[in-house]
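Structure ticket #2291
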Amino acid sequence: MSSPTKQYTALLPAAGIGSRMQASVPKQYLCLGSKTILQTTLDTFLAHPLIKQVVLVLHPDDCWYQTLSVSQAHKVLCVVGGEQRADSVLAGLAKLAADEWVLVHDAARPCISHQDITKLIAQVEAAQQGAILAYPVKDTMKRGNAQQQIVNTVPREQLWHALTPQMFQAGSLRDNISSALSQGQTVTDEASAMEWAGYSVALVKGRSDNIKVTNPEDLALAQWYLSQQTDEEIT
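Resolution: structure written out below.
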């Protein structure tokens, strides 16, 4: 597979409150060492040679972003998001040309590596097909019921953890998210809207340390992962 040469836009929805973190600020503004989660994620994308700009979607009442040094970066375009994540993604997509390929990434995944971003772009360029970073399930999977009792064991073969970035053409992604929402579908990630519309989406194996900070214990784990990444792994 040839190396990518074009540049692309990354879209980071960061309008969530993150109530499960039990913190006084939204989780993207919690610190990982000397930097916030959001700044760590933004810095990685801004430093990638194949990323020409980042569309950052913020809550309308956000008062924290302007305190970050990265807020002065000319490659960041800030837009106001919506109530749900899908609404925020739509707000960001509205700023892009329909035929532009875009990488949508969770702001709360600060451990994303340049290596994985490049791998995803290379796959999409080669196949001209939407794709997502993902990681094969390694644990035994159980299906439970409302009483938290096991119903059955689900074979883990061919099961993947969906990660981000997820890369699609902006116009197609925008149309399919809008259509899915208008018909009452739950859009849990970008790929789910594309799958619902009948598109085939490729899986690109990514690093297992590309975790999403959701619960308090995730913060320490993300910080440890970042401390273990070498310059070669990040770039």
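Closing remark: Residues 29 and 64 are 7 Å apart (CA to CA).
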